[in-house]
Amino acid sequence: MDAFKPVLDLVHAISTLDFQAFTAALLRVLDALFRMFLSVDWRMQVVIVISVLVTVRMTMSIARTTLRTAWWGVKACALLIALVKQPPKITQHDRAILDLKVQRDKIKKYQKKLAQVAESETRIAKSHLAKGDKRRALLALKKKKYQESLIEKADMQLLNLEQMTDTIEFALIERDILEGLKQGNTVLKEIHKEMNVEAVQQLMDDTADAIAYQNEIDEILGGKLSDADMEDIEEELEALVAAEFAAMPKIPENQLPSAQIDLELPDVPAQEPSEPIQERRQKQKVKAQEEPMLAS
């Protein structure tokens, strides 16, 4: 808040049209900007220079234009000062990760160079073979083999660097998670202090008492009947039911005449047929067909 006091004084001087106070406030703003200019890096210095230019522009606008233009200049100056923030500090962990990545890039460049040398030795070996110089061709192939072994070693070193980088980055993530868990545990403990077990139990008891008290009020206001009243009502209901049954017509006691219907049914044979009906009919049919033939 103290950093913005010169700006606020400058705004107040403009609003009151006090030229002397305006001059003093303007000098304090410029002094604050100059001290801030010396304590920050080049990016912040650019912002401060822009703020100074805006302030100078504001001063010129007071002399040439209306108070409205000066007011907008002061607001712009205050906004730029408010936007000045210190860049995030680089920690030792960040530097370690950066160094590992730089070494990784150097090894990749080194591998690329070795691959180019190996390819060149291959061309040299082919050239010597074409000329019939086997000794020089063998020497070129030995150099190529050595370059390839260096590439393999560089691969191992590159793998170690990448593993170390990943391990450090994951450890930083775990640290942030642990910090979050610590903060959450602290907040949870504070909440538990505000609502301990005894307080919760007391609250539940008070709630139950309040509900019971409200039920008593509802019974009183609703005119709920007592047990004796309910017994009287049930007895009256039984009496009404008995009176309804007494008023209903009685069921006749004499037996109603039953209609007698004579049905003539064939007698059931006492013995089972000697042969199945289907076979008997088949024999009769065959006999009927044979009789005309015998008559002729």
UniProtKB/TrEMBL annotation:
Chain positions covered by the region annotation Disordered: 257-296
InterPro entries named among the record's database cross-references: Snf7_fam
Subcellular location per the Swiss-Prot or TrEMBL entry: Endosome membrane
Database matches in Pfam families: Snf7 (PF03357)
Gene Ontology process terms (BP): late endosome to vacuole transport via multivesicular body sorting pathway; protein transport; vesicle budding from membrane
Lipid metabolism found in the keyword field: no
Superkingdom per UniProt: Eukaryota
Keyword Ribosomal protein attributed: no
Cellular component GO terms, alphabetical: ESCRT III complex; multivesicular body
Keywords: Endosome, Membrane, Protein transport, Transport
Family, similarity comment: Belongs to the SNF7 family.
Protein's UniProt name: Charged multivesicular body protein 6
Native organism: Chytriomyces confervae
